[in-house]
Design brief:
The protein is of the alpha/beta class and 323 residues long. Helices cover 37% and strands 13% of the residues. It has ten helices and nine strands. Helix 8 links the parallel strand 8 and strand 9. Helix 1 packs across helix 3. It starts with a strand and ends in a 12-residue tail after the last helix. This is Membrane dipeptidase.
Length: 323
C-alpha cells in the first residue's frame, strides 16, 4: 500500500553531517545512511510513495546565518535526495499523479519562517525552488507569529497574514502544527489550504504540540488535513515510550470527531529522539498498515495512508504556474 508522509527532518541531519564531514570524515548518504530514518532504501521498503522533506532553521541561530542554513538544506534536497534516479521532485500537486511504479515523490517544505525573516523576495524564491508546504513558526516566536512555546501566546503579525495570503496564491499548504492557539485561529480565518503536518489529539495527550478537539473540528470544517505524528511524547502523556496501539488511539479519536477523510500520516522521522515501538524508521510502515487493517476497512486504511491527502491537495484543476 502506498504511503504519503507529510513530515521528516532528513535534510537537517544531512546538513549537520555535511558540516561535520571535514572533521569526522564520515559522509552521510541519503541512499542508505544508517543514521537516517528516511533514507532512500527505507522509503522503498516501507512503500512510501511521497515524502515531505522539511527545511528547519533553528530560531536561535544568528539572523545573518539563517538564510545560508536554509539554502544548504535546499541544496541537499537537490544534490542528495533528488540525485537518486527513482526520486522525483514534486513541483506541482499534479506531479504526484505522474509518478511511475517504483518512483518516490519528494516534496520540499519549510518548517518556520525564520529562514526568510521579513524578506518576501526570499519567500518567493523558496516557492520557485519548490516549497509546497509552509509552517509559520517552530515552537518560538518569529516575525510572522508565535509558536506553542512562546509564553505570551500571541497570534499572527501583519507579515504572517501576508505569508498566509501568499500561500493561498501559490497553492501552498499553511502548516499549523507548531502555532500558538491564537495564531491557529487566525490561520483558520485566512488559509485556503490548512494542514497539521505532524500533530496528535490533545484530549489523549496533553502536550502543547497537539490539537484540542475544538481545533481539530475547525480543521475538518475548513477541509484541512491532520497527519498523526510518531513521537512518543505526543502520543502518551509524559512518556518517551509508545506502541502502535497507542498511536492508533489518536486516529480513533480524530475519526470520532469527523476526521475519517481528513486523517493522514506525518511521522517526524529524523526529527524525533524516541520512536514508537515497531516504527523505528520508514521501512516499518507495513507494520502500521497491518495494525490499521485489523480495525478499519481497506478503504479507510487507504484513506489514512494516501487517499485522504490526494483528495485534499491544494489547487487541483487550477493553473499553479506563478513563478
Amino acid at each position: 500500500m502506498h504511503i504519503i508522509d507529510t513530515h521528516c527532518d532528513a535534510l537537517l541531519k544531512l546538513q549537520i553531517a555535511k558540516r561535520n564531514e571535514l572533521f569526522s570524515g564520515k559522509p552521510l548518504r541519503f541512499l542508505d545512511g544508517a543514521e537516517l530514518d528516511t533514507n532512500f532504501l527505507r522509503l522503498q521498503q516501507g512503500g512510501v510513495k511521497v515524502q515531505f522533506f522539511a527545511v528547519f532553521v533553528h530560531p536561535e541561530l544568528p539572523d545573518n546565518e539563517k538564510w545560508q542554513h536554509c539554502l544548504e538544506q535546499v541544496d541537499l534536497f537537490y544534490s542528495e535526495v533528488l540525485e537518486q534516479p527513482r526520486m522525483k521532485h514534486i513541483r506541482t500537486w499534479q506531479d504526484i499523479d505522474t509518478l511511475e511504479p517504483g518512483e518516490i515523490g519528494a516534496v520540499l517544505a519549510l518548517e518556520g519562517a525564520d529562514a526568510f525573516g521579513n524578506d518576501l523576495v526570499k519567500l518567493r524564491q523558496l516557492y520557485r525552488l519548490g516549497v509546497l508546504s509552509l509552517g509559520l513558526t517552530w515552537n518560538f516566536a518569529n516575525l510572522c507569529a508565535d509558536g506553542v512555546g512562546e509564553p505570551r501566546g500571541g497570534g499572527l503579525t501583519m507579515l504572517g497574514k501576508r505569508v498566509v495570503e501568499l500561500n493561498n496564491e501559490y497553492h501552498v499548504f499553511t502548516d499549523v502544527s507548531h502555532l500558538s492557539r491564537a495564531a491557529f485561529w487566525e490561520v483558520m480565518q485566512l488559509a485556503d489550504y490548512p494542514i497539521a503536518s505532524h500533530s496528535n489529539a490533545r484530549e489523549l495527550c496533553d502536550h502543547p504540540r497537539n490539537l484540542e478537539d475544538e481545533q481539530i473540528e475547525a480543521m475538518f470544517l475548513r477541509n484541512g488535513l491532520i497527519d498523526v505524528v510518531f513521537c512518543p511524547e505526543f502520543i502518551n502523556p509524559a512518556s518517551q515510550q509508545a506502541t502502535i496501539e497507542d498511536l492508533l488511539r489518536h486516529i480513533d479519536h480524530l475519526c470520532t470527531l469527523g476526521g475519517e477523510r481528513h486523517v493522514g500520516l506525518g511521522s517526524d522521522f529524523d526529527g524525533i529522539s524516541a520512536h514508537v515501538t515497531g516504527l523505528e524508521d520508514a521501512s516499518a510502515y507495513p507494520k502500521l498498515i497491518e495494525a490499521l487493517q485489523k480495525r478499519y476497512s481497506e478503504t479507510q486504511v487507504e484513506g489514512f495512508a494516501f487517499r485522504n491527502f490526494l483528495s485534499h491537495r491544494p489547487g487541483m484543476g487550477t493553473n499553479q504556474s506563478k513563478t
